[in-house]
Write a structure and sequence with these properties.
Helices cover 47% and strands 9% of the residues. It is built from 21 helices and eight strands. The chain has helices at residues 16-22, 28-31, 35-38, 53-61, 65-75, 98-110, 126-142, 161-174, 190-201, 219-228, 250-256, 268-288, 301-305, 309-321, 328-341, 351-365, 374-381, 393-399, 418-425, 432-440, 442-456, and strands at residues 8-11, 45-50, 81-85, 115-119, 146-152, 178-183, 208-212, 233-236. The protein has an eight-stranded parallel beta barrel, surrounded by five helices. The termini are far apart.
């Protein structure tokens, strides 16, 4: 008998699956009724928080993301909960001081998160260290918390097997509990996955998890080869919210490994009930237009141009606005050039948007870097951290001539900011977590706090005379 090595599955339906397919618009009330069933599956973990869920909850759903987490924690009695965390940027779009990172990690675990997946858009490990340290500190004190470091997978001269194995060793030295290969654009093809997992397994004892998207159509095959090569956990989505720009379907992968040494042991009847629960909601999303059938297909251009799907659609809409759709292929050729100039970063939020927008400018202006965006300048200054390869000196001299560049960890230049943030928003504070919501999205959180207060006081803001601070009774 072959040695049994059941593969574990992390379910993404409560976070990345709906983030990828319906712009993170699934409300908590849709999630709660199915939690009890999901809790019986035996998942390695359920991803339910972080990424864009925080912003979307406050901005579009008028929900407190912390409240969602507490409710999910109450429901999941036996299953670990996982979140996605953008290193020093937390869940926002700028680097935060270490005291904000520490506080956010502490509160996330206190409110119910078990596993924190931490990544950086440049794979600059210095931008991940503080979040790892903070998680380990809580783990030491309370026995809960797991720091997973995610490497943004990408292709290019710099990204050799040696690069990935070297990073795996460094992640182990950092004190992380596990490693994730985060293939946000669906660029990892099946046989390359075997090679990558085998190479990383040969240099580290840490568990390895693989995350990919179905965008380019190869993801299920990639998981098959990765599992055979020894990967420990794969990220999947229950079928109504699988495929397309989301993950491979949970039930399909469970069936694939049935009766093999990798058999998950999950109950297909139980998974079918969970799928039945989400199907009407998916149909509703299709009917309302929230789920666009376009994102359900395969976009092979992802592999041809090595550009994530979201970045391509962003670029098309930018060209449309300028009546320059005929420049599509020129911009596609320009993207790898800009990426090279900026030190060959992985194309993931926000580096993908920065490279794509700059490529559009270069083509439309007819001269490269005649105009540079403020984000391009920030990358060249080193504000996002260190890139794998050196940036083009010629471009640096043209875009930020004579400016001082940052070589240290960018957050080393930031003063502690929790006290200042708290004093700015104290009139709205009802829980310590509110300070963190405000830290990440000051305007959006303030609007939400006003809405929350109006709900609590049963005041209809639409008929309030805010000028005179008077309300109809």
């Amino acid at each position: 008998m072959a040695e049994q090595k059941p593969v574990k599955i992390m379910e993404t339906v409560l976070r990345d699956a709906h983030q990828s397919l319906i712009a993170t618009r699934m409300p908590t009330e849709i999630m709660l009724p199915i939690v009890e069933k999901m809790d019986k599956v035996g998942y390695h973990a359920v991803e339910c928080w972080g990424g864009a869920t925080f912003d979307a909850s406050l901005r579009f759903l008028k929900e407190d993301p912390w409240d969602r987490l507490r409710k999910l924690r109450d429901g999941f009695k036996n299953t670990k909960l996982q979140m996605l965390f953008r290193g020093q940027n937390i869940l926002g779009y700028r680097p935060y001081a270490d005291d904000v990172v520490d506080s956010f990690v502490e509160k996330s675990i206190a409110n119910g998160i078990d596993i924190i997946r931490i990544f950086d858009c440049l794979n600059d490990l210095r931008n991940l260290q503080e979040a790892v340290n903070a998680t380990n500190k809580v783990k030491k004190q309370e026995g809960r918390g797991h720091a997973q470091v995610a490497l943004s997978y990408t292709l290019g001269d710099a990204y050799t097997l040696e690069y990935w194995t070297d990073m795996a060793k460094k992640i182990e030295e950092m004190g992380a509990d596990s490693i994730c290969i985060k293939d946000m654009a669906g660029l990892l093809v099946p046989y390359k996955a075997s090679e990558l997992i085998a190479a990383m397994k040969s240099v580290t004892k840490l568990p390895i998890q693989l995350h990919t998207h179905y965008t380019s159509g190869v993801a299920s095959m990639t998981y098959l080869k990765a599992v055979e090569a020894g990967v420990d956990v794969i990220d999947c989505a229950i079928s109504p919210f699988a495929m397309g720009t989301s993950q491979p379907a949970t039930e399909v992968m469970v069936e694939t490994f049935k009766g093999t040494p990798y058999d998950t042991g999950y109950d297909q009847n139980l998974l079918a009930e969970i799928a039945d629960y989400f199907r009407p909601y998916r149909d509703e999303c299709l009917a309302s237009g929230l789920l666009n059938p376009k994102v359900m297909g395969v976009d092979i251009k992802t592999l041809l141009y090595q550009v994530p799907g979201g970045m391509l659609s962003n670029m098309v809409s930018q060209l449309k606005e300028q009546n320059a759709e005929d420049k599509y292929y020129d911009v596609l050729k320009e993207i790898p050039q800009v990426r090279k100039d900026l030190g060959e970063p992985p194309l993931v939020t926000p580096s993908s948007q920065i490279v794509g927008t700059q490529a559009v400018f270069n083509v439309l202006m007819g001269e490269r870097y005649k105009m540079a965006t403020k984000e391009t300048k920030a990358v060249l200054r080193g504000e996002y951290g260190q890139t794998v390869k050196p940036m083009s000196q010629e471009v640096i001299d043209k875009v930020i001539p004579g400016e001082k560049r940052i070589t240290c960890r960018p957050a080393d230049l930031l003063e502690n900011e929790m006290d200042k943030l708290e004093s700015e928003m104290k009139e709205w504070k009802q829980q310590d977590e509110d300070v963190l919501s405000y830290a990440l999205f000051p305007q959006v959180a303030t609007d939400f706090f006003k809405y929350r207060q109006a709900q609590q006081e049963k005041v209809d803001m639409s008929v309030a005379d805010t000028g005179n601070a008077a309300y109809p009774v």
